[in-house]
From TrEMBL:
<feature type="region of interest" description="Disordered">
    <location>
        <begin position="500"/>
        <end position="535"/>
    </location>
</feature>
<feature type="signal peptide">
    <location>
        <begin position="1"/>
        <end position="19"/>
    </location>
</feature>
<keyword id="KW-0325">Glycoprotein</keyword>
<protein>
    <recommendedName>
        <fullName>Ig-like domain-containing protein</fullName>
    </recommendedName>
</protein>
<dbReference type="GO" id="GO:0005886">
    <property type="term" value="C:plasma membrane"/>
</dbReference>
<feature type="domain" description="Ig-like">
    <location>
        <begin position="327"/>
        <end position="405"/>
    </location>
</feature>
<dbReference type="InterPro" id="IPR007110">
    <property type="entry name" value="Ig-like_dom"/>
</dbReference>
<dbReference type="Pfam" id="PF08205">
    <property type="entry name" value="C2-set_2"/>
</dbReference>
<dbReference type="InterPro" id="IPR003599">
    <property type="entry name" value="Ig_sub"/>
</dbReference>
<dbReference type="InterPro" id="IPR036179">
    <property type="entry name" value="Ig-like_dom_sf"/>
</dbReference>
<feature type="domain" description="Ig-like">
    <location>
        <begin position="412"/>
        <end position="499"/>
    </location>
</feature>
<keyword id="KW-1015">Disulfide bond</keyword>
<feature type="domain" description="Ig-like">
    <location>
        <begin position="129"/>
        <end position="233"/>
    </location>
</feature>
<feature type="transmembrane region" description="Helical">
    <location>
        <begin position="542"/>
        <end position="567"/>
    </location>
</feature>
<feature type="domain" description="Ig-like">
    <location>
        <begin position="237"/>
        <end position="321"/>
    </location>
</feature>
<dbReference type="InterPro" id="IPR051116">
    <property type="entry name" value="Surface_Rcpt/Adhesion_Mol"/>
</dbReference>
<dbReference type="GO" id="GO:0005055">
    <property type="term" value="F:laminin receptor activity"/>
</dbReference>
Length: 627
């Protein structure tokens, strides 16, 4: 009987749901504002009718499409939807209310209906979390007190907020931690989450950092964002005070900026006064005092504070030591006047708070170590500015200097650009002379005992230069020009020797083209009269060369003519050997003429004959070519 009842109910159920298939809907995920395509997983024919619906307090028809065309119903997605050929539903610019269950329903010609469902999920990344901590100090307590709040806006679906203390997660309702969450749905459908943190406060929280984390889901997975890290102000009692000196330098010197600081070890800070030791008047009623110190600021300083919890006075003390260095003092006042060639000894001393190092410099180079400067002033270049440098070795930057100006007086020192100058007649030359002395010397030029004006130019306070320009004549050859520098102490002289430039000549007893150097004869004594032969020698040198060349050419021509004449008369036979003796055998002095068959008579060369002695009877007569 029961079986029959069950079968009857099953048949009635099948009739009531003819053509319908219930199953778990698919899900589609999309970011807010993007496009989504919803599939229709029911097979259809060309003559089938398709309807798309969504559930919202019941089913709402979106559109119908079939053989008769497509009709769009009035809905909140009407302007953002369309159907593709394969019955997929396209939704543009997805909004938060679009997160619904969509239904694809297909009915064939026989009235059989089939459905498929798609659940649409919409996502929006929330804003960065904003953390706010309590601004006022929080006293140490075992009770839970509000510490801060964290908020994240414009997210979907609802994000989650987690709190951390020093990178350790704070769990709600554990160790006194209380986390309360407030969720607000905005008019756009987006969600704002605010989390408030309460917790006991400990002494260690003076150095603790707190931050919050918002975690959320997107189509591609889970994500999270962290806020910035914040501290809280913890109030706790002061049990002692500390005083210390703050400065840019470890060793403090006069002129340094110094800050004297006094602080308690609690929070908030107690009311503090700073005093100079053994003085009633306070330097300041603040926790710090800064100023540029002098040596008079050295000494003890006291910091006083009142513990408001116990009304006991707290006190701390420190010492301030300010180093100093007075300007050096010299045993002789600057400037110091010394005669050239003299010696100078100067002592430098300095008063300081610690051991000092003293040395002397000139132009940045150390010239003496120690406090004493000893100079042997043999040259005007030894004069000038010397500096005594005193420094406290243990205090970097603590240095004082004192300048000593050394002035030398004496006769001039003279130099010339060259002591020997080669000149020639008609040449224009310029001689240069420089003099150094104090007082500043004057320069005078002398030639042949007569003063000549030069062009004088000052170089420095004690140095002068002079140039003398003139045209050289023969009268200046081998003369000495004097440069005389003079001041009130004495005079000094330097000489410049004028020497005639060497002349190139060709002498008769040398081959044509050979050259010799002929040096001019120097003058002797003070007599300015010159030997006429010496004076004319240079002028006639070129004429002598020409005459020598002409004489050589004439001699060669005569010799050639004589040899040609003898050859024609048969007196000089020609042979294959090319050499014939034209003298009688036995003659001591004879000439051998060497004739080259293919050479003209002018190229014949006279060679000395054999030196063998012969008997007088064997000697032959010969022609003396010397006459």
């Amino acid at each position: 009987m029961d079986i029959l009842i069950l079968l009857s109910l099953c048949l009635l159920s099948c009739r009531g749901t003819q053509g319908q298939h219930d199953h778990v809907p698919k899900e589609e995920h999309v970011m807010l504002g993007h496009k989504v395509i919803l599939p229709c997983d029911v097979h259809s024919h060309d003559d089938s009718t398709v309807q798309w619906l969504y559930e919202k307090n019941g089913n709402h028809l979106i559109l119908t499409t079939g053989p008769k065309g497509t009709s769009m119903e009035d809905s909140d997605v009407k302007d953002r939807v369309k159907v593709k050929k394969n019955m997929q539903l396209v939704i543009e610019n997805v909004q938060i209310p679009d997160e619904r269950l969509f239904i694809c329903r297909i009915q064939d010609q026989n009235g059989l209906t089939k459905e498929s469902k798609v659940q649409l999920r919409v996502y929006k990344t929330p804003d960065d979390p904003e953390i706010t901590m309590e601004e006022n100090g929080i006293p140490i307590t075992d009770e839970s007190v509000q510490i801060g709040s964290c908020q994240s806006k414009n997210g979907f679906p609802t994000p989650n907020i987690t709190w951390y203390r020093n990178d350790t997660q704070m769990i709600n309702e554990k160790n006194g931690v209380v986390v309360s969450t407030q969720i607000t749905v905005e008019s756009s459908g987006l969600i704002a989450v605010k989390s408030v943190l309460s917790s006991p406060v400990y002494m260690s929280d003076v150095y603790s950092t707190f931050y919050c984390e918002v975690s959320y889901h997107l189509p591609k997975g889970a994500y999270m964002k962290e806020s910035g890290k914040r501290n809280i102000t913890v109030d706790y009692p002061n049990t002692e005070v500390q005083i210390y000196v703050k400065s840019q330098h470890d060793m403090i010197k006069e002129g340094d900026e110094v800050e004297l600081i006094c602080k308690g070890n609690g929070n908030p800070q107690p009311q503090i006064t700073l005093h100079r030791k053994d003085e009633e008047e306070a330097l300041t009623e603040d926790f710090s005092h800064s100023w540029k110190v002098t040596r008079r600021d050295s000494g003890g300083y006291i910091c006083k504070a009142l513990n408001l919890d116990t009304f006991n006075e707290l006190e701390a003390e420190t010492e301030l030591h300010v180093h100093f260095l007075d300007p050096p003092v010299l045993s002789q006042e600057s400037p110091v006047h010394v005669e050239l060639g003299g010696v100078l000894s100067v002592l430098c001393q300095a008063n300081a708070s610690a051991q000092t190092d003293i040395h002397w410099t000139r132009d940045g180079t150390t010239v003496a170590k120690g406090s004493e400067l000893n100079l042997s002033l043999q040259d005007y270049t030894d004069a000038g500015r010397y500096v005594c440098v005193a420094s406290v070795t243990s205090v970097p930057g603590l240095t004082q200097t004192k300048e000593l100006q050394v002035i030398l007086k004496g006769k001039p020192q003279v130099t010339v650009s060259s002591q020997l100058v080669e000149v020639q007649d008609g040449e224009k030359i310029t001689l240069k002379c420089m003099a150094l002395g104090n007082p500043t010397p004057t320069i005078t030029w002398y030639i042949n005992g007569s003063a000549v004006d030069g062009q004088n130019s000052p170089i420095s306070d004690y140095e002068v230069s002079s140039e003398l320009t003139f045209i050289v004549t023969e009268d200046f050859f081998n003369e000495r020009v004097m440069c005389v520098a003079q001041n009130e102490y004495n005079s000094s002289t330097e000489y410049i020797q004028l020497q005639e430039k060497p002349v190139t000549t060709v002498t008769p007893d040398e081959d044509i083209g050979a050259q010799t150097t002929e040096e001019p004869l120097p003058k002797t004594g003070s007599d300015s009269t010159k030997d006429p032969s010496i004076e004319s020698r240079s002028q006639k040198s070129y004429g002598v060369v020409i005459v020598a060349v002409i004489v050589c050419i004439l001699l060669l021509a005569i010799l050639g003519a004589v040899l040609y004449f003898l050859y024609k008369k048969g007196r000089i036979p020609c042979g294959r050997s090319g050499t014939k003796d034209i003298t009688k055998p036995g003659e001591k002095d004879h000439i051998v003429v060497e004739m080259k068959p293919d050479s003209p008579a002018e190229e014949s060369v006279l060679l000395p004959g054999a030196q063998d002695k012969k008997q007088p009877v064997e000697q032959e007569k010969y022609m003396d070519l010397r006459n």
